[in-house]
Amino acid sequence: METRERPATPVQPEGTLRSEELLLNMGPQHPSTHGVLRLLVSLSGENILEITPDIGYLHSSVEKMMEYRTYTQNIALADRGMDYLAAVTNEMAILRAVETLASIETPPRAQYLRTIFMELQRIQSHLLWLGTYGIDMGAFTIFLWCMRERELVMDLFESVTGGRLHHVYFRIGGVYDEVPRGWTDRCNEFCGYFKKRLDEYHQLLTGNPIWQARLQGVGAIGRDLAIALGASGPVARASGLQWDVRRSHPYEAYDKVDFKVPVYTEGDCWARYLVRMEEMLESARIIEQCLAQLPEGEFRAGRVPINLRAPAGEVYTRVESPRGDLGVHLVSNGGETPWRVKIRAPSFSNLYALAEMMIGWKIADIIAILGSSDIVLADVDR
Amino acid sequence: MSSGGPEVTSIARVPAMGSQVAPIEQMAEVLTKLPGGELLLTTIENVLNWGRASSLWPLTFGLACCAMEMMQAMGTRFDLDRFGVIPRATPRQADLIIVSGRCSIKMAPVVRRLWEQMPEPKYVISMGSCATCGGPFYYDNYSILKGIDTIIPVDVYVPGCPPRPEALIEGVLKLQEKIKQERLVTRRARRNAAAAAGA
């Protein structure tokens, strides 16, 4: 495995001005840290020698709180306490563990509805990433465009769940309610519209020389190092790792639809940007296929008690969140509440991959690399 | 590398910054003693308050989920800019802090420091249930502050989890109403009382 050593502080030639290492504090309040991340940056002139992330500024003790709440209540907590840009994916992560442990089958219609919602969530999460990344790099137009399309996704969510950001839509054994009449047509219409908009984003950014200069070759990380650091999701796929939970451990309706997993080998910011752009297109394709195949029937398994008592035992399940491999280790002793929940957050691992990526780059590249890894601090700290 | 912030109790002991009296407030004190001065003072106040209310510059500061809705409010559909709300990246140029999201005990001294770095007159909007009272993180929780008003004075509370962008806009409009009714003399008295309580 290739590893990166901390570069040695340059030796001072005799008779020149004295210079020394500079320790720079960045955050926790900084417009580009995407939350409350604090980075301690060791600098030699403009070059980064070492990055030490200081986390915990948004620690919400979610894992502890889950031990005091029933499985149904934990769905609402997973929305808020974990990665807030992927609310339904968090619900799915918890529910996949609970349903595996309690051996509950979901009806086919619920599986398709869940898949549609998770892919809509991926689109809105990547849109927010693209918009804020644009601001970080000095491109303001893309932010306004992304917010415009994001509102449309929010409208789709809102007309079904009533919530814009936190949905609490999934239930044990299915979903809360049927989608309203005409919703599937609107969703289909959005996918067609969104694909056209995605072309416009490419026209605005992909050919832009400034955008290319800031991203291409910056913050590259190799495949082996990405595996060793536990990176997952778009960060790992940009480094050449063919790993997507939707493909390797299919859940819900992912084994019934056809989609491509974009993989690049460069491992730089540019590759991560392209992976997410292609993922948005693939998400739109998955939604369209799910809408075409959407079966009739029940949307929720019958006879699931509200206060479910999962049988004693433990289970580890994973889903693919917009940020990567989101795992839940759930231990039950047969009570109404879980005995212990451990969340394996993708942002946490990607944050440490990010510290490796930054070594040796200039101070201005911190923002480019930080933005490209798309971490959410609520996911890191939980 | 430091880990674990200071205790919450230590925040109250941070001395308040910016205790100088603004020239306009000195003038207000003189004017109240002059014949006809009250009338002049009211006119000055109206002009000042109009200016303050119409250019509320918030700090670009997000804590958690509510920051996403704050971003949407400043984004394309809701466009908070039309009320004169333009985000600033440094507390030195901001006169409004929108506390958007849950604030942990480790983060609390940072929020307090940011508020202290803002020049007077400054206002605080508490956005969402978590910032207002701890919200869903109230029970069985060891790390989240039970309301941001335990460390900084709040002007407007916006309820919701998270509040819709419309709700945040309503909160900003309420704050504008509040600013337009503000009197220079009462503002000074209130601040002196706050300083006396803190000391």
Report on this model:
- The complex is a heterodimer of chains A (382) and B (199).
- With 382 residues, chain A is an alpha+beta fold.
- Chain A has one domain (62-357, 365-381): Cytochrome-c3 Hydrogenase, chain B (Orthogonal Bundle).
- Chain A has helices at residues 62-66, 71-81, 87-102, 108-136, 141-161, 183-205, 209-215, 223-228, 234-238, 245-248, 269-293, 346-358, 365-373, 377-381; strands spanning 22-26, 38-44, 47-54, 170-171, 174-175, 313-321, 324-332, 340-344.
- In chain A, the strands form 3 sheets. Chain A has a 3-stranded antiparallel sheet with strand order 1-2-3.
- In chain A, α4 runs antiparallel to α5 and α4 packs antiparallel against α11.
- The mean pLDDT of chain A is 88.
- Mean pLDDT of chain B is 81; it is low at 1-15.
- Chain B is globular, with a radius of gyration of 18 Å.
- A 3-stranded parallel sheet of chain B has the order 1-2-3.
- In chain B, α5 links the parallel β2 and β3.
- By secondary structure, chain B is mostly helical.
- Chain B has helices at 23-33, 37-54, 65-74, 108-117, 128-133, 165-180, 184-198; strands at 96-100, 123-127, 156-158.
- Chain A binds chain B through residues 28-29, 31, 35-36, 40, 52, 54, 56-61, 64-65, 68-69, 76-77, 80-81, 84-85, 128, 131-132, 143-145, 147-148, 150-151, 154, 164-166, 378, 381, and chain B through 1-4, 60-65, 67-69, 71-72, 75-77, 89, 101-102, 104, 106-107, 110, 114, 136-137, 139-144, 161-162, 164.
Helix content of chain A: 40-55%
Strand order of the largest sheet of chain B: 1-2-3
On the 0 to 100 scale, the average pLDDT of chain A is: 88
**DSSP helical segment count of chain A:** 14
Secondary-structure element order of chain A, as H and E? EEEHHHHHEEHHHHHHEEEHHH
Radius of gyration of chain B: 18 Å
Low-confidence stretches of chain A: none
Note the beta-strand portion of chain B. Answer: 5-15%
Main β-sheet of chain A: number of strands, strand sense, barrel status?
3 strands, antiparallel
Please give the CATH architecture of chain A. Answer: Orthogonal Bundle
Structural class of chain A: alpha+beta
Number of domains of chain A: 1
Uncertain segments of chain B: 1-15
The number of helical runs of chain B is: 7
